[in-house]
Specification:
With 127 residues, this protein is mostly helical. The protein has four helices and two strands. It has a two-stranded antiparallel ribbon with strand order 1-2.
Length: 127
């Protein structure tokens, strides 16, 4: 088993299949965000809708971070891990490991929100 195919507190709680799925969802979020900004830029939607780009951006960024870091925020918050290809799905029992997982989950979500807010502001000014 490689390092990204086994549970490591605060840094790895998902395997290859879960990462692939997150990359797909991240791409979908970015496509929706780009389409929204493009629609506003060409006048198909009112400028007042530019702040709505925050939602698909935040989702896209969060899922991209989860995929690239091999860490699921929801599983980390729930104290679980999933390595389906390796047949390993389970619960984290160690309280210190659970604390590390929750901390990583918070960092990923906070980073996603801040970056999405900044990119939304840039889109608002640019459009």
């Amino acid at each position: 088993m490689s390092a990204v195919d086994s549970y490591r507190p605060g840094s790895c709680n998902i395997g290859v299949q879960e990462r692939r799925r997150r990359y797909v969802y991240a791409a979908a979020g970015f496509v929706v965000a780009a389409a929204l900004v493009a629609a506003v830029a060409v006048g198909a939607l009112p400028e007042a809708l530019v702040p709505a780009v925050f939602v698909p951006l935040a989702v896209g960024i969060e899922w991209l971070l989860q995929a690239s870091r091999s860490f699921c925020v929801v599983l980390g918050t729930l104290g679980k891990y999933s390595f389906e290809a390796a047949g390993e799905v389970g619960t984290v029992d160690d309280p210190d490991a659970r604390r590390e997982d929750r901390s990583s989950a918070i960092r990923i979500t906070a980073t996603s929100v801040v970056v999405a807010a900044l990119l939304t502001a840039v889109a608002y000014v640019a459009v």
